[in-house]
Write a structure and sequence with these properties.
Blueprint (H helix, E strand, L loop, with lengths): L10 H15 L3 E5 L4 E5 L4 H9 L6 H15 L3 E4 L5 E9 L2 E11 L6 H7 L7 H12 L6 H16 L3 H29 L10 H12 L3 H18 L4 H21 L4 H17 L3 H20 L5 H16 L6 H7 L4 H12 L3 H19 L4 H7 L5 H12 L3 H4 L1
Antiparallel strand pairs: 1-2, 1-5, 3-4, 4-5
Helix pairs in contact: 1-6, 2-5, 7-9, 7-12, 8-9, 9-12, 10-11, 10-12, 11-12
């Protein structure tokens, strides 16, 4: 027996949403059950489809194609725009609960380009159709609604927001899946960078990258911490050869580090311990590299929130302010005295506080920021090494090369 979307949706509310969507977009819209059968339909039937079914198509069935597209939408975590076997465009939103596909909302068909007689000729190839039948197909194709790709994108988002709001469980599942895919795309980018830099499975673990990640965690820079975590996950996925267990072991170690930082930042030890137990359990239960990376990212966010949600000391806020100042002005000739003056602290007190909060001395952290920017310029521009040294705040190329090798393990020339 097919899954029924009315098990998770209110029938009257669904009908109202379908009617409203059809009225606003002028696209035919249908509610499908788990087998793709139509439960409700709004908007006129498409003459082109009716003629195709009469003259050409019996298999594959529209129902199967539509539900295959719904499962694809489920895997992507968003409304899916696709072309059917007849060359027409549709959009589909999956109706989910607990990972089960109960049905879908299908909007379309429509065209995103001018009707082309070649489409009719292509799908009728090998079939003996009379000239009047071919002409009728082309006339009906010309009557199919045409919208721009940009407008189709807006309509697909409208469909997502409309029906995900009616199915909160589905919204959470789809958003989580979408976040996972976006994170893995960023991890894949870092893997390609490591490959281009000559990193191999035998390369040593980048502890400097880990230390910089923990600095971001301590200073409350969630965006920067997330980016560095994805960079580190790229190295781990690449160096592990795609094996899950080595990555899981390192993820468990990172989780423990995040937990300790959260306690240092003021999170109650008992709540940090409970959170740590929950996160460790989720990491041990992850069955894919993608899922493990996502769980670790969520753990990072949770630990940072547990620390930052408590009243922060004025000193810690001053260090956050200093870190932001460094990130904006690293290319200038700034020194500890400049930054301490900016945050209204004495140089000696600021120096000790900075080391306490970040784990780095002021000079070490400034050089680290400069080296990270120089790595980006070396990898993505044709600037000379001298120009990159100057652009990142090093006034002396030999000193830049010395610091770069100490942090990265190779010279700037070798890195490029």
């Amino acid at each position: 027996m097919a899954a029924n979307p009315y098990e998770i949706l209110d029938k009257a509310a669904v009908a109202d949403m379908l009617k409203s969507f059809q009225a606003c977009t002028c696209l035919p819209v249908q509610l499908l059950d788990g087998d793709g059968a139509i439960l409700e339909a709004y908007g006129p039937a498409t003459g082109y489809c009716l003629l195709l079914k009469k003259h050409l198509f019996s298999q594959p069935s529209c129902e199967k194609i539509h539900m295959d597209a719904a499962r694809r939408a489920q895997s992507l975590g968003e409304t899916y725009i696709f072309n059917c076997h007849a060359g027409l465009t549709h959009m589909v939103f999956p109706l989910l609960r607990g990972g089960v596909l109960y049905g879908a909302v299908l909007a379309g068909p429509f065209l995103m380009d001018a009707p082309d007689s070649g489409l009719v000729l292509e799908i009728s190839k090998g079939r003996a159709l009379s000239a009047p039948a071919l002409l009728g197909l082309y006339e009906e194709l010309s009557a199919v609604k045409q919208i721009s790709p940009a407008l189709a994108g807006h309509m697909s988002r409208l469909l997502f927001y409309l029906f995900s709001g009616a199915t909160p469980d589905a919204q959470r599942e789809l958003l989580q899946r979408h976040e996972q895919l976006a994170q893995q795309a960023r991890i894949n980018e870092s893997i390609q960078r490591f490959k281009s830099q000559g990193v191999t499975e035998e390369s040593p673990y980048p502890y400097e990258l880990e230390r910089e990640l923990l600095v971001k965690v301590r200073t409350g820079d969630l965006y920067g911490a997330s980016a560095l975590l994805n960079e580190l996950l790229g190295f781990l996925q690449f160096s592990s050869g795609g094996q899950l267990e080595p990555l899981r072991n390192r993820a468990l170690e990172l989780c423990s580090l995040f937990s300790r930082v959260a306690v240092d930042q003021g999170a109650p030890a008992d709540s940090a311990l409970r959170l740590n137990d929950h996160v460790l359990s989720s990491l041990r239960g992850a069955q894919t590299l993608e899922g493990l990376g996502y769980q670790l990212l969520k753990a990072l966010e949770a630990f940072m929130e547990s620390g930052s949600g408590l009243p922060a000391s004025a000193g810690r806020e001053s260090i956050k302010k200093a870190v932001r100042y460094i990130s904006r002005n690293y290319a200038l000739s700034i020194c500890l005295e400049d930054v301490s003056r900016y945050v209204n602290l004495s140089p000696s007190y600021f120096s000790g506080l900075f080391k306490q909060c970040t784990g780095f001395s002021f000079k070490e952290y400034l050089n680290l920021v400069r080296i990270e920017e120089s790595k980006r310029l070396l990898a993505n521009t044709d600037y000379s090494i001298v120009d990159i040294a100057v652009a990142t705040g090093f006034q002396d190329q030999s000193y830049f090369s010395k610091v770069f090798k100490r942090h990265v393990g190779v010279t700037p020339k070798q890195y490029r």
